[in-house]
Design brief:
Elements: H1 2-12, H2 17-29, H3 33-43, H4 60-70, H5 77-85, H6 88-105, H7 117-129, H8 133-145, H9 149-159, H10 169-180, H11 184-194, H12 197-205, E1 224-227, H13 231-237, E2 243-247, E3 251-258, E4 261-266, H14 277-283, E5 290-300, E6 303-304, H15 307-311, H16 321-326, E7 329-339, E8 348-349, H17 355-363, E9 371-373, E10 376-377, H18 382-394, E11 399-403, E12 414-421, E13 426-437, E14 446-454, E15 464-470, H19 476-488, E16 490-494, E17 497-500, E18 505-510, E19 512-515, E20 523-526, E21 529-533, H20 545-551
Parallel strand pairs: 1-12, 7-9
Antiparallel strand pairs: 2-10, 2-11, 3-4, 3-5, 5-6, 5-7, 7-8, 11-12, 13-14, 13-17, 13-18, 14-15, 16-17, 18-21, 19-20
Helix pairs in contact: 1-2, 1-9, 2-10, 3-12, 4-6, 4-8, 5-6, 6-9, 7-8, 10-11, 10-12, 11-12, 13-18
């Protein structure tokens, strides 16, 4: 792990893209196949490949306990160091380096046995499999005991998915190509279709990139759509013919099927089949095999119901028969990643087939009532897009995804071949009541805002009740200016969170409002984002709880 950490540190120390690629390529060439695969995955900031649904399952508290134990630090020391950088890896380094310095001061010879990259990933796997939180802490502490402070820092960073060395996945792909003399385009294609940069590195090393294929029951990152401001922008970017599909308000999911084995994977690649057994049961009798892309949602007969109904099923690993009857789920198909040409024949990838061909294949599939094709229209102008948008909203959907009918399916990529049109349902003027230190590039500023509306219920007039939290929408300059204001007007500190004087009004856009126990108002905004600061408004001019209730779905 130490050589990997040294390379990561060297990469972090340069801003030149060419130098980052050269450093990585030189290091990758020195590795055996097993270490190569793990190294590339770690350089993407993940403990496991993108297509691997496992997550480390180690939260901030577990990292704190493990580091404090290994560093022989007093309770609370990790949090104090962490607050200086908002980086758990850096906090681990500081405490462990202080431990080593103290041991050396006392005359002890400090050594660290280190661990190989496959051993580190095996330790991550063991942490995932451990059922008890205490066992996960023990396993992490045992791993950190073997590592020097630099290697430990990067283990914590990778485990938390926060590498922060200025390294995009595209640069890792370029480094693989450079290391083994392969075209970067072929490396990227292999990463796309396998969902595993480590496997792509192995294939590149052995000159077998053309063998890359999507595999059943190994989910891929879904193809993504880029946001568009309005129909005019879409019409400018995507001349007719264009396809407009309803954008559904559910859970993006892949369906993998081989015979009667059907599995559903969420957008973050987790297996959610047990949460939606009714959908899996509906798909089993179908004669096709393959991989479909679509949306899980609630269906009453053939009608699609609001997302708020679907929330009743989220988090239930095994819904009861009563829940299945009360909140019946369905699946809307809008793309095909791979399909068998006929029952019993091998699955053939369709990533390189145009959307017109993929849709034709979907239309030829037999489908039960609870598995339907997405609604498709063919507008030829901005006015036609606006009309299609209004019709999609009238059907209870979020908006449109407008697609180039000649586009290929590119897993995990966001380009201009798919554009999404979502108009905010409304905006509310809210009062900021709490702020929190941000993460990543905003770790030194107060960028996460909790906001409230005025309670106008009889007997509660004047109170502020929270309705949401957002961290996007303001510019860096606005956040820096407001950080100085909030620091001067903090009422109480609660760790990283601060209660502030309730005098700042912000205009907040959102997609919808739904009932929720998360906030004191009893409601929550879905996808809130700050539209602008409202210095022209006083807190007593903010919107009210009755307005929120009237907008709730």
């Amino acid at each position: 792990m130490r050589p990997w950490a040294e390379t990561a540190s060297d990469v972090a120390g340069t801003s030149r893209t060419s130098e980052k690629i050269a450093l990585l390529a030189e290091y990758l060439r020195s590795l055996d196949p097993d270490s190569l695969a793990v190294a590339c995955v770690f350089f993407t900031g993940r403990p496991f490949p993108a297509a691997d649904p496992r997550s480390a399952g180690v939260g901030w508290a577990a990292v704190r306990e493990a580091v404090e134990r290994v560093a022989s630090a007093r309770p609370g020391a990790f949090g104090e160091v962490y607050d200086r950088s908002s980086d758990p890896g850096r906090a681990a380094y500081d405490l462990l380096a202080a431990r080593d310095a103290e041991r050396e001061r006392l005359g002890e010879r400090v050594t660290h046995p280190d661990a190989s990259l496959p051993e580190v990933q095996a330790a991550f796997a063991a942490i995932v499999e451990a059922r008890r939180p205490a066992a996960r802490v023990d396993l992490l502490a045992a791993l950190l005991e073997r590592l020097d402070p630099l290697a430990a820092m990067y283990v914590v960073k990778v485990l938390g998915g926060e590498l922060r060395i200025g390294l995009r996945e595209g640069l890792v792909e370029s480094a693989i190509g450079s290391a083994f003399g392969r075209p970067v385009a072929e490396v990227r294609h292999a990463v796309m279709v396998t969902g595993d940069v480590g496997e792509a590195a192995r294939l590149a090393r052995d000159d077998r990139l053309r063998e890359a294929r999507p595999s059943l029951f190994r989910p891929l990152q879904p193809m993504l759509a880029s946001p568009a401001r309005d129909a005019d922008e879409i019409a400018r970017r995507m001349p007719a013919p264009m396809w407009a599909e309803d954008k559904y308000d559910g859970i993006r999911a892949q369906m993998h099927k081989l015979g009667e084995d059907v599995r559903l994977y969420s957008r973050d690649l987790h297996d959610v089949t047990r949460q939606f057994p009714d959908v899996a049961d509906a798909a089993r009798p179908m004669s096709w095999d393959g991989i479909l892309d679509g949306e899980l949602l609630v269906m009453d007969d053939a009608s699609i119901l609001p997302f708020a109904r679907l929330q009743n099923r989220l988090g239930r690993v095994a819904p009861s028969p009563a829940m299945l009857a009360e909140v019946p789920a369905g699946y809307v198909i809008f793309d095909a990643i791979a399909l068998s040409p006929a029952p019993g024949e091998p699955v053939i990838p369709l990533l390189d087939a145009p959307l017109t061909e993929r849709r034709a294949r979907l239309e030829s599939l037999e489908r039960p009532d609870r598995i339907v094709l997405g609604h498709l229209e063919h507008p030829d102008s901005a006015a036609g897009l606006d009309a299609a948008f209004d019709a999609a909203r009238a059907r209870g959907n979020e908006g449109l995804v407008v697609k180039d009918p000649t586009s290929l399916y590119t897993p995990g990529r966001r380009g201009l071949a798919w554009l999404k049109l979502k108009k905010a349902l409304a905006t509310l003027d809210c009062v900021v009541v709490g702020v929190e230190v941000g993460h990543g590039k905003r770790h030194g500023v107060l960028s996460d805002y909790t906001f409230a509306v005025r309670d106008d219920r009889p007997g509660h007039e004047g109170a502020l009740v929270t309705v949401g939290k957002a961290y996007s929408g303001l510019t860096d300059a606005e956040i820096a200016e407001m950080t100085r204001w909030f620091e001067a007007h903090t009422l109480r500190r609660l760790g990283r969170y601060r209660l502030v004087e309730p005098t700042v009004v912000v205009e907040v856009a959102f997609d919808r409002i739904q009932a929720s126990t998360r906030h004191a108002s009893g409601y929550a905004m879905r996808f809130p984002r700050i539209a602008r600061l409202r210095p022209d408004k006083r807190p007593d001019e903010a919107d009210t709880l009755s307005t929120v209730a009237g907008l709730a779905t």
